[in-house]
Amino acid sequence: MNFASDNAYGAAPQILAALSAANNGTETSYGEDAVTARVTGKLTALFEHAIAVFPVVTGTAANSLALATLCPPYGAVFCHRESHIAVDECAAPEFFTGGAKLVHLDGEDGKITPAAIAAMLPHYARGVHSPKPAVVSITQASEVGTIYSVAEIRAIADAAHNSGMTLHMDGARFANALVTLGCTPAEMTWKAGVDALSFGATKNGALCAEAVIFFDTAHTQAFEYRRKKAGHLVSKMRFISAQLDAYLENDLWLSNARRANALARRLGDGLAALPGVTLAGPVEANGVFAWMPKPVAARLRERGAKFYDWAQEPERVMVRLVVSFATPEADVAKFIETAKG
Amino acid sequence: MNFASDNAYGAAPQILAALSAANNGTETSYGEDAVTARVTGKLTALFEHAIAVFPVVTGTAANSLALATLCPPYGAVFCHRESHIAVDECAAPEFFTGGAKLVHLDGEDGKITPAAIAAMLPHYARGVHSPKPAVVSITQASEVGTIYSVAEIRAIADAAHNSGMTLHMDGARFANALVTLGCTPAEMTWKAGVDALSFGATKNGALCAEAVIFFDTAHTQAFEYRRKKAGHLVSKMRFISAQLDAYLENDLWLSNARRANALARRLGDGLAALPGVTLAGPVEANGVFAWMPKPVAARLRERGAKFYDWAQEPERVMVRLVVSFATPEADVAKFIETAKG
Amino acid sequence: MNFASDNAYGAAPQILAALSAANNGTETSYGEDAVTARVTGKLTALFEHAIAVFPVVTGTAANSLALATLCPPYGAVFCHRESHIAVDECAAPEFFTGGAKLVHLDGEDGKITPAAIAAMLPHYARGVHSPKPAVVSITQASEVGTIYSVAEIRAIADAAHNSGMTLHMDGARFANALVTLGCTPAEMTWKAGVDALSFGATKNGALCAEAVIFFDTAHTQAFEYRRKKAGHLVSKMRFISAQLDAYLENDLWLSNARRANALARRLGDGLAALPGVTLAGPVEANGVFAWMPKPVAARLRERGAKFYDWAQEPERVMVRLVVSFATPEADVAKFIETAKG
Amino acid sequence: MNFASDNAYGAAPQILAALSAANNGTETSYGEDAVTARVTGKLTALFEHAIAVFPVVTGTAANSLALATLCPPYGAVFCHRESHIAVDECAAPEFFTGGAKLVHLDGEDGKITPAAIAAMLPHYARGVHSPKPAVVSITQASEVGTIYSVAEIRAIADAAHNSGMTLHMDGARFANALVTLGCTPAEMTWKAGVDALSFGATKNGALCAEAVIFFDTAHTQAFEYRRKKAGHLVSKMRFISAQLDAYLENDLWLSNARRANALARRLGDGLAALPGVTLAGPVEANGVFAWMPKPVAARLRERGAKFYDWAQEPERVMVRLVVSFATPEADVAKFIETAKG
Fold first, then answer.
1. Interface ipTM
2. N or C: which end of chain B has fewer CB within 10 A?
């Protein structure tokens, strides 16, 4: 019963198999290989747009390199107070950008709003004394398992663009959001105004593969140099690209995400039905946030369940439960049973 | 006949197999897993010393993170003019350190000497006007396929330490050097005065795995923070560590290196015997540098051989030929035959 | 009636005169001059402690260089949400440190508390995923004209030190705070646990002179290199030091501060007596923050008064009025009269 | 007899007087003052071009901020091996740019050539493995007291622009070069292809004042933010601008430079006439480089002369003698007499 993180599980078998398939003969290194070209083609078709695509091995690298490409050292990145870039990456964006400021916005359900952007902007309109607002970054799905609608993304993009800012989407759980919305990748990104995307695969079945995608290919040169300079240009790139290739093949990424989301809903529904348990927010992706009595949480841990506490009250605790593409169905059922007591 | 790079070949089958073996159940992420612990144990035993070990995915990351840990932003790193950190990493060390200076030393056969260090030091003894000499970095095996003897390393370490500097070894081809010297890993590193090591595995059979090793564990905290902040802490770390685990198992790393070195010597000997062909230096690891008439190089390329030109003269060219753990023996024979004409 | 900033006024005549006096013959450049040595001696005596002293030309440089010396790139600096380093320096500390995080704490009257530090620390106790808490920075006097008591400083220092952090004091208005407390410089700094101080002079009568002071001289080498590398080592240093020399001579710095504080109190008292006007906080240094009806603020501006709005309500506005060492007494009286209407 | 540096002397009396004149009433801070506007106007007229002008307090700041504005973090700056930015600024450009590489070119008489640029470029044409050539920087007058002709500048600018690079001129001794060439400031800069200029004043009579000038005003916003973020936006800017204002008034800058250059020539001629003394290069600005027997140098120092040794041979030493705007004529005569023995 490991609900600690979607990183706790390993890799999808199809993705592992793709590594072996890619291990065939010689290839030009540093991304000039056939597998990387194929992935670029697949993603271009998928997003229905000319794009610049760059595989990297971690979500922190994807986010930080994307932000450093979009934001000057003297810029500011507006993001949710609880976003991964704000609180989980050891201030990596500040390092990659050369000292840009991450400006924390509040917002319900882990999501920022055009109103929050508008309210913050005057504090950054004082000339050179404040960093220049340069980028808005949103997380889809968010850190608390919620999802921006296409209309919400569009509204944020408009707010950003009207203020001379670009819009970055941290899509570490892009697939989980997409299958919930039921729209196309294009609709959830550039058609809604997204300028750059961290397209995650690791949490949803890869070993270590993400792709940074720009919908304006003018960023290509700057990004490629930055990726190399940050040590993120893998020499045997075919092995990173092969993960993405298999991830996209036969819609594996979508079926993995659908499975995780469905189990998360089942888990959320099961817990919500228990006395004393309340969901802290809607279950829209693969995360469940639930308030439960402290003895219930303690009993679950005694029986081997793994999960993180997210907030505390005297009598109860809010727990975060993350379901992965590979979480056994039986573990979900057992967790609910154990919570029931 | 691909002699362009040891990165042109894929992964050793044992290492690929280890990925599948590691894909078993859940694990704590971010390096707190059992595989990483096992690798740490293996390397500790191998080096016969308490060490701090950190897997990363590229050699540039290994070198830059190690240097940034050892060198302050206002420091200088002394290295060979042709070293990888000086000319092949897009000034990554300068980025990771926050602006340190790489000071280029000349030296025969791709190697620096205590004399070269001593000759440069006075230029960096002018107070704050010059960066503070902080680290000496050597490459073992060097960029031109040569190897520092243990005594040479010891002499450089003494020169560094006597000037308040530490010694870093870029061991992207550590195994190739070690099997030539026939000494122990300890003898080639800390016993000779090495303070930090980039222990390479990718070029010698891994997909994307290197380890940074400090022989003073006091660097642990600083390194761990820096690795995370640079986006180089892989969440599903077991898949990086599993590569290192298999690499070390049954001395795979040594047998791979021995094979590559032996084929390189065969290639070197075969070429040296040809009229008009001269080796540019000794073949001590898995690289062969040879001057040959330009028509010979052209003929080789026509027949499908891949390799890089390293230097030019009017009538002849110096080519770099890199043999990997997986280069077919037949390709070596064919290359010599083709060169023969 | 310029109450916009203490930077709006020029320099004290004694300080200007000192520049001419220093313009005498040749001197060793880059801080090895006699004037700088004299200032170091004066400050050492004044602070009753062995110190490392470094003149610089701006408060932003003083703060950022001090913080970069104390805080690693992967560190965090805890400070008040409205502090100068947080909102008025274009994220300079983030640049100088190489990407450290400024963590904003709330607090009444522009001051942070040990409780606020304690409440924030758990969010930064998650290993490498968050920056390492490294420095607490307080502003004395604060951005809203209030002053930490010696006991408050001591309590914050204890909270910092108990968590492995150091304490930096932004003393851009150090003199204004000191004369209010009536204690010694030593009591307000190292005796209360302060580790590093930005000792301001510009706002209180210099042209462009601040001093960074460390109470642990072990920071000397790192600071000196950083100052040079940031372009803040002035070649003809005697002209910066001469300002500090005159500033300290005959207690000019204290009499300037006393004058400004007294006028600020007079201004505050005068305004507080008016109907519809309320002080937003105590007047403890040279700043007055007052709520007033919008028509009153408008009338003042019509009559030529300069000042900044600090907060808005529908009917009234909170204005910031800063009194400098050189503000004419008549301007204070005229401002009150004009506000009276 | 202080010939150690042009920084050893103080300030021109006219410039000191201008500080007092500027100390009059209140001014908007941070560069929005009338004096700064006047200086901008004067320099615009002087250079006969729309320019962006930014006063700063040190040459290192001027160079580094200019380079960081022109060169991305992943870029390379080509400069002479002995240039100030290469060897005298503690790698400040590397810090300000976020890790760019300074590429050292050789060249006679302290000057680089189009041929040297052309010879180096192929080493930086290997894609992302090497930094991207972005800027060429020349020093006028050079570190060894020589001067680029307008035609030489034009040729270098063409070489730079044809390779997609911009041209920066470190004009710490701009006036000394200009009066020798006898051309206009426009002819020596933008008309010859210079894109950005560090316009020095400190060495030639100011206390601490330089100006960064861009001939393309599109750099304005980026530079202004960078200056603030680096702590180089002086609050009471009128006192920096007043120095530049007086420096330009009545051609003080040119007469100061003419005087220094003339004395340097007199010194050079006097020394060259002595037996055993040889000039190491032409005296074109205010520096004299002369080989002399070691006993002569020793005797000079015994009699109180100050100067730096620049190179050593067994029997003789090359000394650097810098003449400033304020060096007494008598000191020049006395130095020659003393050398004569």
1. 0.97
2. C
